[in-house]
Design brief:
By secondary structure, the chain is mainly β. It is about 5% helix and about 35% strand.
Length: about 400
Amino acid sequence: MKHSTWVIRLLSIATIAAAPDWMQAQVTLIGIGTLPGNSSDLSGLNGKFQDGTPWNRLGGLGSAIAYSGKSNRYVLASDRGPKDGAIDYPCRIHMMDITVDPESKNPVQLKLASTTLLTNEMGQSFSGALSMIDKKNPEKSRRLDPEGVRVGPKGEILIADEYGPSLYEFDTSGKRTQTYPIPAKFLPAKISAKPDDELPPKNLMGRQPNRGMEGLAISPDGSKLIGIMQSPLIQDGGVDGLKQRVGINCRILEVNRSTGKTREYVYQLENPGLGVSEILALNDYEYLVLERDGKANREATFKKVFKIDTRMATEISLLEKLPALKLPQEIMPVTKTLFIDLLDRSMKLVGTDLPEKFEGMTFGPDLPDGRRLLLITADNDFIASSPLRIYAFAVEKP
């Protein structure tokens, strides 16, 4: 290693040592806001899907949440709809007022303000259906699975699509106004309405089906989008010959909104059976990442939020492939330390009503006592008997 590189590395370490220590921040559960799982949204749609679900079912909106920057209003995204992509579900976002008062008997109050359907530049509706693809021109496909949402400096809505994976910008009317570049290595060579056809041997690279870009962050100045994959790419050892998940090296993709320039880093899962659900910016180089298992209630064993730091991580844009497990010595992943264990007894969440899918995270306006408000949402998969839940936490500032 050259002397100059050592100097840069030492300066980086010194900077990290002097940075605010988010690891020391105390996190306390304030309360849980709920709405019935059979609630209606404000889309104005009437009728029912073939499985009997009403067109205006307020479901799946725990997939993503972002603070609007105004008062107590947040934007939440419903995912691709009921039945895992088998239904032609018009994709939508919701505006919701979430009022948090730690001193109240009901500390988290939820009130839906509006629902907006999402369309492309031609005004055509986006659909959660797997079948809404254009094999000749994949960029013209109308299938969309919103799994990450953020609000830009001018109020624009940024969405991470798990199907692509894709990064889109929408205006406040719900119309797509921009598509951001995604490196080819993230994209399946062949897209299909059948998930198994997007796995090896038909696809040897790109995201795994239903394990694409699951989380989205935006830099504090709004200039960069940071997407994170739920699981490793196929060529990064994501699956073995039996199509079982065996890899731990997930890619983080940073996109400069002005230039389209991208950077990539490695985030390592604790084990191959887990997945990433969300990423949230603390500052220009530190993020919170939500990593979890796919189990609910007392069967759940892993639901954790980690603080990661990208400053010492290796930039891997030029690497087309990564090993499934151990990285070469010259590749350093992001540093990773525990921030919240949602299954810790102090949180008092473990029990018969613990959701499987904690999926969205956002900061809100500071609490009256100066602590930061952190909201974590749970996706109820449009199940009428499963309440919509939003968890409010108070975070001591470092």
